[in-house]
Amino acid sequence: MDAVVYKNIVASIKEYQGLSQNCMKLLLKTYPNQSYDTLYSILALEIRNRMKINHPRSQMNQQKFWEIYQKSIENCDKLGTIVRMAEKFDTSPCLLAKVILNQYFEKEHCCEDVPLSNINIYLRDTTLIPDMHLAAEVFLCTLYDNIYSPLTESMRSSLGQQYEIKLYKEVMNLGLGFRDEEHLRKHGYDKTPDCKLDVPIIIDGFVVNWIESKALFGDEDIHRDYMKNQYLSYWNRFGSGMILYWFGYLKTILEPNDKRFIIKDHLPKNIIQISPPNFELDDM
């Protein structure tokens, strides 16, 4: 993706005030040439960066938010108070729901046998919340939050596995032998790529020993973090390899003279397989 297009998308996200779910709808209308997965990946990263700033403020104002919620109950406002509060205060519905839940258990002293520090269990199963109205409010938060809800987190994990399977199928269709991450870990490797080729291949003149699958958009921050925590370890252990950002990547992360990694958004078909040499007894 060109830097100009990327900057425009990021600017649209930063300018938008409201629920990330509605921001996603705006992005799809504004940038019809970009896939849903690409736009969502960029949106998710920007929202998480925003929440790193906004959510600590929410935690500092727990009493204030609790009082607003209580007043809404007293006024018999329609369901969706926490979602509307999240939209007004530019925060995540699920993160705000955790703040409200924390205040609820602290002040009401319900469920004393349940560890109050583990609020996440109530987002995953809202039927555990003793207050039926609050349970309904929190459940709505999980529906309206497309970044931090337990459902979204499960879908994101499933998506990563789906694209790993896609990688394995495409590698097998090319007739390449490989070892997957699970196999490598069983043999003592702590940090392993998704796919370690038995025999290296050549793609665009670049030798590829391993392939890493990422079901996301690769921007500079994402690439820098993975470079530090994963890619360099793979390079040290297995040599040069390929990184697949399935939902695209920012062109500025490319380093033309980099001999360690090649970056793609798909697995190329025009590969050159390196055949091991055949030794004859007379050659020895």
Automatic annotation (TrEMBL):
<keyword id="KW-0963">Cytoplasm</keyword>
<dbReference type="InterPro" id="IPR029404">
    <property type="entry name" value="CDIN1"/>
</dbReference>
<dbReference type="Pfam" id="PF14811">
    <property type="entry name" value="TPD"/>
</dbReference>
<dbReference type="GO" id="GO:0005634">
    <property type="term" value="C:nucleus"/>
</dbReference>
<protein>
    <recommendedName>
        <fullName>CDAN1-interacting nuclease 1</fullName>
    </recommendedName>
</protein>
<keyword id="KW-0539">Nucleus</keyword>
<dbReference type="GO" id="GO:0005737">
    <property type="term" value="C:cytoplasm"/>
</dbReference>
